[in-house]
Amino acid sequence: MIGKDREPPPLRSAKGVLEWETDVALLGNRMIWKALATMMIATYVVIALLMSFIMAAQGEADAIPPLLGMFALVCFGLFVLMLVIMLVVFGNRMRMRFRLDGRKVRTEVADRRAKAGSRIATVVGALAGKPGLAGAGLIATADEVREFEWRQIAKAGYDDRRRVITLSNDWRAVAYLFCPPEIYPEARARVEAMVAMKGRKAPARGGRHPLVQPLLLTLGVFLALVPLFAMPYPFEVHLFALIFTLCFALATVWLIPLLAYAVLAGVGWMVFEITVRGLEVHQSQFGGEPWTGFSSLYGDEWLAMGLAAAGLVFLVWMSIAMLRGRLVSLLTRDMTE
After folding, report:
1. C-alpha closest to that of 114 among 101, 96, 131
2. Between 30-57 and 239-254, two packed helices, what is the crossing angle to 10 degrees?
3. What are phi and psi of 158, to 5 degrees?
4. Beta strands 281-282 and 291-292: pairing type?
5. Region at 91 (left for phi over 0; alpha for psi -120 to 50; beta for the rest)
6. 3-state DSSP call for residue 11?
7. Which H or E run includes 124?
8. Whole-number Å distance between alpha carbons of 288 and 302
9. pTM of the predicted structure, to 2 decimals
10. Per-position pLDDT tens, the chain of length 337
11. Measured distance between the N- and C-terminal CA atoms of the chain, rounded to whole angstroms
12. Phi and psi at residue 219, in whole multiples of 5°?
């Protein structure tokens, strides 16, 4: 067993493989701080946008500021908890394994405590009926090993003082290589050679940024659902159907295209609900002729129905385009390019 104070020698093969293990400092590492801050900010922004949109669409805008304050406190508490875990549980160190060869680069969590923690979180979350905890454990387990072919890397950055190599695609860092002193010169030379020889060229200045499409689709999803939050009587759509469709539509845009099936199911649910309410016959309280939901609409209400129908058509179009590959989620693009 290799002690914490002694780095293992590099493992080389005849095929030019360079492999090493090292203890990565956590609290003293600015990459870790940056990753934690980015994760917390992204979590806060996503939750704040979703809940603000829902509250505003329901005419409860006054409740948004205190809600945002509460979310900020929760995210800050999670941030502090993660720092405590890194210090107390992991002793401010995590064992990592890295491998470079002629085809790809591989990073792996070698720390047994980290592996055990992610699996415990998955099991406890499943047994306790807490999908958030189980999901976090599954994500951590899946992220223990990361591999990228050199053609997926557009550029590399080198921090000679800290001996850290940053590998990036067109728009973000995808992996960090932490190197002990005796490994760093050769690791840098290999990365420079492989990126120059096999790496993907970054898009020219003025080219379309990878975030443009998902951001435009996200805006389209919000605009498509706004009219459905303000449907006239008796066409009010169930709130759960709206939130279900909203969440899966955003997950389709940013994560996995197959989630578009859930979006189509949500759209089908809302269309069914609107149709049933529109055809339902109502008896007038004043002895007049029976009426249906559709027959009671007039002027502005027909306009609201038309906007809602246009929004549903957009969601169907986007979902089918995702399933057929004409549109690609950001995560899928990251994994395949």
Report:
1. 96
2. 150
3. -130, 125
4. antiparallel
5. left
6. strand
7. helix 112-127
8. 23
9. 0.69
10. 344 444 455 555 435 789 999 988 878 777 778 877 887 888 788 888 888 888 887 778 888 888 889 888 988 888 888 788 777 777 778 888 999 998 899 998 876 655 444 444 444 444 444 444 334 433 444 456 788 889 889 899 999 998 999 999 877 888 899 999 999 999 999 999 999 887 766 555 555 778 889 999 999 999 999 999 888 877 888 889 999 999 999 999 998 899 999 999 999 999 999 888 888 776 666 656 766 767 777 778 888 888 999 999 999 999 999 999 999 888 777 766 5
11. 38
12. -60, -40
Angle between helices 30-57 and 212-229 (to 10 degrees): 30
Type of residue numbered 240:
F
Q: Which two tokens stand for residue 97?
A: 């394994």
Nearest Cα neighbor of 225 from 320, 302, 310, 311 is: 311
Strand order in the sheet with 164-168: 155-159, 164-168, 173-178
Reading the block at residue 238, the tokens are 């169930």
Contacts made by residues 24-27, CB under 8 angstroms, sequence distance 24+: 24/93, 24/94, 24/95, 24/96, 24/178, 25/92, 25/93, 26/86, 26/87, 26/90, 26/92, 26/93, 26/94, 27/83, 27/86, 27/87, 27/92
Q: What type of residue sits at position 161?
A: R
**Taking the mean position of all CA atoms in its chain, how far away is CA 4?**
34
Could you tell me how many residues make up the chain? 337
291-304 burial, b at 16+ Cβ within 10 Å, e below that, comes to: eebeeebeeeeeeb
